[in-house]
Design a protein that fits this description.
Blueprint (H helix, E strand, L loop, with lengths): L2 H9 L4 E6 L3 H16 L3 E2 L8 E6 L4 H21 L4 E6 H6 L2 H5 L5 E3 L7 H9 L1 H10 L21 E3 L16 E2 L2 E2 L2 E5 L1 E2 L10 H5 L3 E2 L2 H13 L4 E5 L19 H10 L6 E5 L8 H9 L6 E3 L7 H7 L5 H14 L4 E8 L6 H14 L3 E6 L17 H23 L6 E9 L7 E5 L4 E4 L9 E10 L2 E4 L7
Parallel strand pairs: 1-2, 1-3, 3-4, 4-5, 5-6, 9-12, 12-13, 14-15, 15-16, 19-21
Antiparallel strand pairs: 7-8, 10-11, 17-18, 17-20, 18-19, 20-21
Helix pairs in contact: 6-7, 9-10, 11-13, 14-15
């Protein structure tokens, strides 16, 4: 038999899974780890939901829009599966799964699985139960019906299949997200996310994350270093350390050493890994930017000149209502110190507009902060009420039409300021780590500068994984374009 035909035949006999991810980089990392765990158990990854035996949505609860997108998607998928492939297993994972639990199955009876944020490593085990094991799926397909068998009684129709909901806490779950899928289209990955902790203790009044992710729980430095070292042996050149508030890493479990916080100790340990070129991290909190972290930018060459420091508002009154724990003055002090240590550092941030009680004067302070801080990039979000958070019941909720108008004005100011930061780079050489083909135009290649600016250039596969210099010829919206004739040998 032809080898390709043989492989196709084998894949047709194993259960396939399609995972769609909503939300942040933490969610992307969780989905990747789940996929890697499933592959290790013998599952195949489906290229789309159209051919999958299992469809999982990894959800986000930070904003209502993200929840509504996931719910609408599952409603549409469930309706299609009922018509065409009723044996497909449907499931929710992640933050919305954690916050809503059984309610999701009550709303969408076709859903079979709801897995919370501390149970990602259990997904394979639960799918085995729902499918009756891979052997059960193979026999079902061999029988020509194309539907998996239920572990609750072989041959029962999917409408009678057991439902699994697991949103309980699990000690040690922070150390279970470590598997990676580093090969795509036969090519090795250049960069990788590494989850170093779970949870959040900040309890900002607008945020549901502490309720969906739980309290802070950190991995050990040795465990994280071992994972990063393994990634480097597999070809990774850059790691991004992830946490809900990444700068809070280890503060309950690891004592300071020589005035250095546990997070800075971790940066130092990862920095020692031979073969690693670059270190990034996200998302921090301004309170975590002590002098030890700012000083680390100046003495750790692998720690790139990029800082994402979420400010949320330029008004001290709103910052206090948000329970952020710093003032505008303190935030600007952090930015000034970072630029003193690394003059070319790229600084980005997050804003929320239309927070309860935000007046036009408060919003004007946010606009002025954008100009004063001269951010390289900023992510702007309209305030979204999250149930059971303090802000949801605050007085003076800002009308949606005002939130929308302020959102557009702030975006316009951010774009204007960012353009003034990007334009002077035309004609300069920048160092990039080449990641691979551009997502928007696969005929061109893309890399990222140390200060986190995307550069697109006319390269080829031989440039992937290289750290190289490219001369900037023009700029776009938050994108630089490089001269294909410069330093591409």
């Amino acid at each position: 038999m032809d080898y390709g035909v043989f492989c196709t035949a084998i894949l047709a006999l194993v259960p396939s899974v399609y995972i769609k991810t909503y939300g942040c980089q933490m969610n992307e990392r969780d989905s990747e780890a789940v996929a890697a765990q499933l592959v290790a158990k013998g599952y195949a990854l489906a290229p789309s939901e159209a051919t999958a035996d299992v469809i999982l949505l990894n959800t986000c609860s930070v904003r209502d829009l993200a929840e509504q997108k996931a719910l609408r998607k599952m409603e549409n998928v469930a309706a299609e599966m009922r018509r065409s492939r009723p044996g497909v297993v449907l499931g929710f994972m992640g933050c919305m799964a954690q916050s809503r639990g059984r309610e999701l199955i009550d709303r969408l009876p076709d859903v079979d699985l709801v897995v919370g944020t501390q149970k990602f490593h259990r997904v394979g085990e639960y799918l085995d139960q729902l499918l009756g094991g891979a052997d059960g799926l193979v026999r079902a397909r061999s029988g020509g019906r194309g539907r998996p068998l239920s572990s609750g009684g072989r041959g029962r129709p999917p409408s009678e299949r057991e439902k699994i909901v697991d949103v309980e806490e699990e000690p040690g779950s922070q150390a279970t997200i470590r598997e990676h899928l580093l090969n795509g289209n036969g090519r090795k990955a250049v960069t990788a996310f590494v989850s170093i902790m779970q949870g959040c203790n900040q309890y900002c009044t607008f945020c549901i994350v502490p309720y969906t992710r739980g309290e802070e729980r950190s991995r050990t430095i040795a465990d994280i270093v071992a994972e990063c070292r393994e990634l480097v042996t597999r070809g990774v050149k850059e790691v991004t350390l992830l946490g809900q508030i990444v700068t809070s890493f280890g503060r309950r479990d690891i004592p300071k050493q020589d005035g250095k916080t546990p997070f800075v100790q971790l940066l130092e340990a990862v920095h020692e890994i031979e073969g690693l070129e670059r270190i990034r991290f996200t998302s921090p909190h301004p309170k975590g930017y002590g002098d030890d972290l700012i000083e680390a930018y100046g003495r750790l060459p692998k720690l790139v000149e990029s800082a994402h420091v979420p400010v949320q508002s330029g008004s001290d009154r709103i910052l206090k209502l948000m329970h952020r724990g710093y003032t505008r003055e303190r935030f600007m002090e952090i930015v000034s110190k970072l630029r003193l240590v690394k003059p070319g550092i790229g600084v980005s941030t997050d804003f929320i507009v239309g927070f309860p009680g935000e007046t036009e004067a408060d919003f004007e302070l946010t606009l002025s902060l954008v100009r004063e801080a001269a951010f390289d990039q900023a992510f702007v979000f309209k305030y979204s009420e999250r149930r059971d958070t303090p802000a949801a019941s605050m007085p003076d909720q800002v009308p949606q039409i005002v939130r929308e108008e302020r959102n557009q004005r702030l975006l316009s100011t951010v774009n204007e300021v960012a353009a003034s930061r990007y334009q002077p780079m035309v004609g300069r050489e920048v160092e990039i780590l080449v990641e691979g083909p551009s997502k928007k135009n696969p005929a061109r290649y893309t890399g990222r500068t140390r200060c986190n600016k995307i550069v697109v250039f006319d390269g080829s596969e031989r440039h992937r994984r290289q750290v190289m210099n490219v001369r900037v010829t023009r700029t776009g919206a938050f994108t630089l374009y490089g001269d294909p004739g410069i330093h591409l040998d």
